[in-house]
Amino acid sequence: MAELDTSSGGGKKGGKVRSKKASTRVDLTAMVDLAFLLITFFIMTTTLSKPKAMDVVMPDKDEKQVDQLPVAASRSMTILLGANDKIEWFIGVPGDSAPETINYGKDGLRKTLIEKGKEIQASTGKYMVVLIKPSDKSNYKNVVDALDEMKITKIESFAIVDITPAEIGLLKRDGNY
Amino acid sequence: MPRVKVARKSTAIDMTAMCDVAFLLLTFFILTAKPRTEDPVPIDVPASTAETPLPEENVLLLTVGQGKVYYSVEGTDIRKQTLEQMGEKYNIKFSPEQKQVFSGVPVLGVPMNQLQAFLNLDVDKRKAYKQPGIPNDTTANNELADWIRESRKAVASLHNKPLRISVKGDNKEEYPTIKKIIGILQRQKVNKFSLITSVKNETKK
Question: If I label A172, which of A155, B159, B160, B203 is the partner at 20 to 30 A Cα–Cα?
Fold first, then answer.
């Protein structure tokens, strides 16, 4: 580490009195220790992953029904979010067809959405409209999951709508409320 | 017999380069650091495939958990302005110190009538104080709606930009609470907002 300048000395011609050069090297170990300690602290306290946002657009609650177009019942699919992570779905108005109970996930909701979307596209020539109706017994995760499935299955037209008593009745009958 | 002499090497290493790297990293982390805000109630964010990151500025965050709603907005200037407007609305005069304290409070969940007492607390006590959440009854006492409206006004006047409203909810939160918040937003003609989710590791189709 500390190297000393030993070259100076007596006996040389014109020898000036030189001051001893002190070494400019500093022991950096402690400084590095400190720096890494602080780095560790900052890594631990910062959130590296930014939160992701999922945009939701609600239908306008305006009473005046000027711009609203009626949608044929044959191409609207209603999803009822019930308790215990269960979903019931039917096409058209409640009572038209028997609702079916399914689960969330790949083989439940997603499969149904893709199948029905294709069927409706084939039979009516238009895209499917999905109405998501969360019941009071469903939780926030269910809503996010349902919205996420819309995104995954690339369904463009969907809306979160309030549930009606008749639909709660359906959920109750099948033990999902 | 001549002994083989092993030359002794110095164990000291040149630390200069290491020191440089360490401080470079340190500077980077300090500059990018944004302290993690503690949620007043434990919140388990649901996962989704959404990949849009939340913008940094002009964001209002509603934290929902255990039936309570907490309010937070980015930017100290906006927080201050909002507090002033709220004070006018509720006829509460806030002192400059209280405003200063308020601009540093990351998450708020105190009713208006307790707000002054809350701002007068010591830093440690304020951290330990269990915030009861902002009242959001749909009837008369809807402070949450006022907070949202005043923040929107403040952002519009100070930054000349629309305020983005995002909801951070717990997985197990029951839907009626969320519905109530959506109702409050819709009554103010906010039909577009964001839900905060974490990244789901699932292969997309």
Answer: A155
Closest CA to A70 of A110, A126, A115: A126
For chain B, say whether A84 makes contact (Cβ under 8 Å): no
- In this prediction, the answer to ipTM > 0.85 reads no
> What sign has the CA pseudo-torsion B169, B173, B175, B178?
negative
Chain B residue with minimal CA distance to A29?
A: B15
Both structure tokens of A125: 């020539």
Q: Is the whole-model pTM more than 0.80?
A: no
Q: Which of B10, B29, B63 to mutate to test the interface with A (most CBs of A within 10 A)?
A: B29
B167 and B194 in contact (C-beta within 8 Å)? yes
- Where does residue B11 rank: exposed (0-12), middle (13-18), buried (19+ CB within 10 A)? exposed
Return the structure tokens found at A146: 């349902």
Residue A132 pairs with which residues in a beta bridge? A79, A160
Facing residues of B68 across strands? Answer: B65
What's residue B24's pLDDT?
92
Residues in chain B with pLDDT values less than 70: 1, 35-37, 138-141, 201-205
Query: Dihedrals φ, ψ of B103, to 5°?
Result: -65, -15
Chain segment B115-152, per-residue pLDDT in tens: 888 888 888 888 788 888 887 776 666 788 888 888 88
Opening angle at CA B140, ends B84 and B132, nearest 5 = 65
For A51-104, the pLDDT digits (tens) are 778 888 877 766 555 555 667 777 788 888 888 888 888 887 776 677 777 777
Nearest to A32 among B18, B168, B186 (CB): B18
3-state secondary structure labels for all residues of chain A: CCCCCCCCCCCCCCCCCCCCCCCCCCCCHHHHHHHHHHHHHHHHHECCCCCEEEEEECCCCCCCCCCCCCCCHHHEEEEEECCCCEEEEEECCECCECCEEEECCHHHHHHHHHHHHHHHHHHHCCCCEEEEEECCCCEHHHHHHHHHHHHHCCCCCEEECCCCHHHHHHHHHCCCC
